[in-house]
Task: structure prediction
Amino acid sequence: MKLLGDSSSSLLLSLLLAQLHLLASAFPVHHRRNQIDFDKLSNQTKLLLTLTRNLLKDRVFSTEINHHRFKSLPAISSRASDFATLEVKPTLSQLHANLKSFQHHFEWLNNITHKQQHSIPKLTDMVSHIGGLVNSLQRQMNHIGAPRLTVPSPSLPPIPAFHWEMVQTSQELLEQFSLFCDWAARVLGRTRSLLTSREAPVVGSTGTSPSGPIRIVGK
Result:
């Protein structure tokens, strides 16, 4: 009886080891790396969204913007039909181009606020975080072979002459960037979820995931 029990235990252990090997082979290293990289991109974007919203809570930004000064900021569309047709590589390329555009605008704003001594708390930190997200996007784009889009030179508004103009210029840029970060975080979250669902292993099968472009499913 003891010998039979030992044999059963050995058989069960062998089956478990075989199953673990199957699961490990179903999750190639590059799939796990993609998931980790997308998690990092999503977390960096959410951090920027939080920083932007916290800056906008300052009482100095409580006024209503009377006209729009920035003409070259990226246009953000969050319609369900647009989300339904997004693909990973073009989406990352567009995110990168849009973020680079915002980076140029914020660097301009940061420079003129320092020159005019109208410093905005934590603006320099946010510019640094934007640069970090740009670098992370570039690494992920290189990893999956996504092309870089040409980013046109921004059409910047005249340098504000008065303090209230500086406040409204800063508020407009922060509000637009908040919308962008919210959109980007949702896009990255959907992409991450879709990557996970497509790469999830099927127990008892060693087949690869279906081929074709990865699309983000709309609401």
Residues 200-219 have pLDDT under 50 and may be disordered.
